[in-house]
Amino acid sequence: MIKKINFLYIFFLLLLLPFTFVKAQTSLSETLWIDSVFKTMSSDERIGQLFMVKASSNGDKKYYENLAKLICDYKVGGVAFFKGGPVREANWTNRFQQNANIPLLIAIDGEWGLGMRLDSTPSFPRQITLGAIRYDSLIFQMGKEIGRECKRLGINMNFAPVVDINSNPRNPVINSRSFGENKYNVAKKGVAYMKGMQSVGVLACAKHFPGHGDTDTDSHFGLPTIKHSKRVIDSLDLYPFNELIKNNVSSVMVAHLNVPALDPSGMSISSLSKTIITDLLKKKMGFKGLVFTDALDMKGVSANHKNGTAELKALMAGNDILLIPESISEAVARIRTAIDSSVISSDLINQKCKKILMYKYKAGLNHYKPIDTD
């Protein structure tokens, strides 16, 4: 009897070995790719990976040439596309990728699909309409289709879903971009949308942390203040973010907000706050994915931070990717000076660079192929 049990146990282990090996092999191949790429990079290239610049494919030849030179000169890690058309964007992406030593992370801000930014592409309903849909499975299917369309255009990341709670009817910037005022519905719809996109290999992004719903100022033009107590923020605003983090969302975007209950140090800005990003988002809430700033050319942050200071502060606060810097040349110079003077360590840059490479691997950029424009 004992011999029989031992034989069955060994047989069972032998059956499992191939699956264990495949899992280990996948993890090993990821590590090997990251390390092999990282070792080829100069210190400038490692700094460059932290930046994502803005592109619009409806620009003229001079605009394209200036942008291509910027990407090449500063070895940027990613490009976020806005206005344009699908064929133009695909052609531009192919050219940018062809000239990049390391594959670029290509993003779009397509909350209701590619049609939010590109002509002649589908638009889905805005999130306030989706919030009224009874079956979350439909939101998953929509997310999956948006992801498929993104992949067809060589887009690896979509800055969606918005998981802000629409708790202020006078909000000039969130309103119809939110799933609604019920935190449970916002969270469920956000998780479904995120899972749909990520099921086809497109990275999702929960925004705008720690919650932009109850504001009457647009952070594109000024610095909004969130007047909620810490108790309300914990139980209301952070609830959807916690749910998406539990369900493995790839990235979180941090808003430009003044939130005295979370960081009482003067007129602090959430996107530059170590208390909000490192202590709250990363340590307390346990988020391990990519942390993006909201666009750094927005007046909510840029009005009082010049010459690359916002980018350096954002980096020190815990952000991984500095989105749309107002001046990449000044930002890079400021970061280099900070490293040389030991304000920040080169190890910090290296850690963030490797983390970004890891998500490039997850997005399939270790096997990059040009977009077929047929």
Tell me the β content.
Answer: 5-15%
State the strand order across the main sheet: 4-3-2-1-8
For the termini, the CA-CA separation is 66 Å
Helix content range:
40-55%
The shape, in one word, is globular
**Contiguous helical run count:** 14
How many β strands by DSSP?
8
Can you give me a brief rundown of this structure?
The protein is built from 14 helices and eight strands.
Structure, explained:
- With 374 residues, this protein is of the alpha/beta class.
- It contains 14 helices and 8 strands.
- The chain has helices at residues 2-39, 43-48, 61-74, 86-99, 127-130, 136-152, 183-198, 230-237, 239-246, 274-284, 299-302, 309-317, 328-340, 346-362, and strands at residues 51-55, 78-81, 105-108, 157-158, 205-209, 251-254, 290-293, 322-323.
- The protein has a 5-stranded parallel beta sheet. Strands 5-6-7 form a 3-stranded parallel beta sheet.
- Strand 1, helix 3 (61-74) and strand 2 (78-81) form a beta-alpha-beta unit.
- The model is unreliable at 1-25 (pLDDT under 50).
List the helices and strands and how they pair.
Blueprint: H1 2-39, H2 43-48, E1 51-55, H3 61-74, E2 78-81, H4 86-99, E3 105-108, H5 127-130, H6 136-152, E4 157-158, H7 183-198, E5 205-209, H8 230-237, H9 239-246, E6 251-254, H10 274-284, E7 290-293, H11 299-302, H12 309-317, E8 322-323, H13 328-340, H14 346-362
Parallel strand pairs: 1-2, 1-8, 2-3, 3-4, 5-6, 6-7
Helix pairs in contact: 1-14, 6-7, 7-9, 12-13
